[in-house]
Amino acid sequence: MQTIRVHDKLFEPYLSESSIAEKVKSLAEKLNKDYEGKKPLFIAILNGSFIFAADLFKSISIEAEICFIKLASYKGTKSSGQVITAIGLDMDLFNRHVVILEDIVDTGKTLNEFLPQLYHQQPASLKIVALLHKPEAMVFPVNVDYTGFSIPNKFVVGYGLDYNGLGRNIAAIYQLVE
Ligand code: IMP
Q1: Is residue 122 part of a domain?
Q2: φ, ψ for residue 53, nearest 5 deg
Q3: What is the structure's pLDDT at 80?
Q4: What is the Cα–Cα distance from 136 to 150, expressed in whole angstroms?
Q5: 10 part of a folded domain
Q6: pTM
Q7: Tens of each residue's pLDDT in the chain, 178 residues
Q8: How many domains does the chain have?
Q9: For residue 108, which atom of ligand 1 is closest to its CA?
Q10: What is the SS3 assignment for 25?
Q11: Fewer CB within a 10 Å sphere, N or C end of the chain?
Q12: 163 CA distance to ligand 1 centroid (A)?
């Protein structure tokens, strides 16, 4: 088995390029059906989702828009701790069918904190697409509407996902060797 090294850690092949491509196509087909005539607005969350979003969007054949945002968290002044803000969210979501594109939902913390800000704009609907979902790691309640792969609670890299900045350019997905 072809293991790879990223920084100080070893990773082994987990999801092949072809299985990812097949899954992304089937997610796009479902979305094409479910959003026909609704002119959805896809919001891809950077950095991790850039490859997934690009590949998925190429297979979206219905009328649709896409924008890319980055989430930044900083320590708020209130005791609630982290505050999440979206950089680059310049679209009006009112009455739009919004589809969030995430590379991976792990604990659910990021989306759990960020989604209320989107609901605040009163979209017609708001759904979440995640290429990867780690159900065992879920701490904060987030309903993932479209999941590519449910995976065990192990760290993965590749296909846009990084380990301390490296590994995003690996075409397949690799899992940490423990
Ligand atoms: P959550 O807020 O815990 O759901 O974390 C979501 C974010 O953590 C993702 O968008 C990723 O950037 C990062 N993340 C979680 N698990 C992994 C992993 O296994 N590999 C790479 N990044 C991960």
Answers
A1: yes
A2: -65, -40
A3: 54
A4: 9
A5: no
A6: 0.95
A7: 699 999 999 999 999 999 999 999 999 999 999 999 999 999 999 999 999 999 999 999 999 999 999 998 776 555 556 778 899 999 999 999 999 999 999 999 999 999 999 999 999 999 999 999 999 999 998 999 999 999 999 999 999 999 999 999 999 999 999 9
A8: 1
A9: 4
A10: helix
A11: N
A12: 10
The token duo for 146 is: 């479209």
**Domain containing residue 40:** 19-161
Query: For residue 154, what is the domain's CATH number?
Result: 3.40.50.2020
Alpha-carbon distances, residue 21 vs 6, 27, 54, 159 (angstroms) = 23, 10, 12, 11
C-alpha to C-alpha distance for 85 and 43, rounded to whole angstroms: 14
Query: What span, in angstroms and rounded, lies between the C-alpha atoms of 39 and 164?
Result: 36
Q: Pick the catalytic residue: 92, 106, 145, 162?
A: 106
103 C-alpha to ligand 1 centroid (Å): 8
User: Residue type for 115, please?
Assistant: L
Question: Does any domain span residue 33?
Answer: yes
Q: Distance from CA of residue 98 to its chain's centroid? A: 14
Q: Give helix 17-34 / helix 50-58 axis angle, nearest 10°.
A: 60
* Annotation says 92 is catalytic: no
